[in-house]
Design brief:
This protein is an alpha/beta fold and about 350 residues long. Helices cover about 35% and strands about 15% of the residues. It has nine helices and 16 strands. The structure holds pyridoxal-5'-phosphate (PLP).
């Protein structure tokens, strides 16, 4: 099997063990003679997947009893609309902190649906380095019903150092950081994440929501996006994306087997520290994020000679290092390293980067 190191931001690298399990169970799921893809979502077998995925996530994140874990159709972007429609009445406001592309999109969608929403630029530029502005320096609305932020901005590689400390519910887009380290769930009103990074494959999103935020149905909210109804039906209001749910179960089984959040926090933290350390001492590569705002999962970097970008990507690929191209909106390179990225991948990446730099320094 020739598996490459895949630095894609998402859909992202999956553990080979998980893909092997999928392969071995694909034709005949656990002796049933039927593939999981062909099985009803209201069968005892699928019920077991629903229960197990939920209990795995509760265990991995040590989720308090007053929170619900649910899966809903679609990507994280669906939640950009579902959140204001569930949590705000017409005329209500919420504060949206913008630190990159995804929070900007979420803020724009919320404002379109609930025009009183306050979209706040929370990205600072100090001596050419980007960072997250301190909460105390932002103009927050005292009447906001919740504070929304993106702990890890996947494209720009900007991360919050800590959870914003406010008296209103905190809503967080954890799409690219979910299950990458321990999180104190009790500090949040709602956490959501598209599945296509640490939870497997695209098609569903995880929502962790506090009891008191399961509100009654608004007239402008489709029932399929209504948290209270979906929670009452355990996400099975209609036919869910069963295969994606099954993969989320396998991913969470795998994370528990590996040692849970402390294992991944260490591995991801070590990988990121090693790559930043290399970039920072290099004359050829640079990262423009302030140290305290650096993402541990998505590391963007630039070559000092941008005309070498295509050559870098081509040679990286022939060395088994793929999907290092930065997002089309920012250019340069980006190494996304989620839970499935093995410890030795970063050494291989650094070794390649170093050889490339030595061969191309002018
Ligand atoms: C932080 C973040 N939020 C939202 C999204 C959008 O996710 P989706 O494509 O599932 O709508 C992404 C996608 O990568 C993301 O990284």
């Amino acid at each position: 099997m020739n598996r490459l190191f895949n630095f894609s931001a998402g859909p992202a690298m999956l553990p080979a063990e998980v893909i092997s399990t999928i392969q071995s169970e694909l034709l005949d799921y656990k002796g049933t003679g039927v593939s999981i893809m062909e099985m009803g979502h209201r069968t005892p077998i699928f019920d077991e997947i629903v229960d197990r995925t939920e209990s795995n996530i509760k265990q991995l994140l040590d989720i308090p009893d007053n929170y619900h874990v649910l899966f809903m159709h679609g990507g994280a972007s669906h939640q950009f609309a579902a959140i204001p429609l569930n949590l705000l009445e017409q005329g209500d406001s919420a504060d949206y902190l913008v630190t990159g592309t995804w929070s900007e999109k979420a803020g724009a969608e919320a404002k379109r649906l609930r025009p009183e929403v306050n979209v706040i630029n929370a990205e600072s530029l100090i001596e050419g380095k980007r960072g997250v502005t301190k909460l105390s320096e932002l103009n927050l609305n005292p009447n906001a019903k919740y504070l929304y932020y993106t702990p890890n901005e996947t494209i720009g590689g900007l991360a919050f150092e800590s959870i914003p400390n406010v008296a209103i519910p905190v809503v967080a887009d954890y799409t690219s950081a979910i299950l990458s380290e321990p999180v104190d769930v009790s500090k949040f009103g709602l956490i959501f994440a598209g599945a296509q990074k640490n939870l497997g494959i695209a098609g569903i999103s995880l929502i962790i929501i506090r009891d008191d935020l399961l509100k009654d149905l608004n007239s402008d909210l489709p029932i399929l996006w209504h948290y209270k109804s979906m929670n009452a039906e355990r996400g099975l209001y209609n036919t869910p994306a069963t295969f994606a749910w099954y993969v989320a179960r396998l991913m969470t089984d795998w994370m528990l087997e590996k040692g849970g959040m402390s294992y991944f926090a260490k591995k991801n933290g070590d990988n990121a520290a090693r790559l930043y350390q290399y970039i920072d001492q290099s004359q050829f590569y640079s990262n423009d994020v302030q140290i305290e705002s650096r993402s541990k999962l998505n590391i963007p970097f630039l070559l000092s000679d941008e005309s070498k970008n295509d050559l870098f990507l081509k040679q990286a690929e022939s060395n088994g290092l793929v999907a290092l191209k930065g997002h089309r909106s920012v250019g340069g390179m980006r190494a996304s390293m989620y839970n499935a990225m093995p410890k030795d991948a970063v050494e291989k990446l650094i070794s390649f980067m170093d050889t490339f730099a030595n061969n191309n320094l002018s």
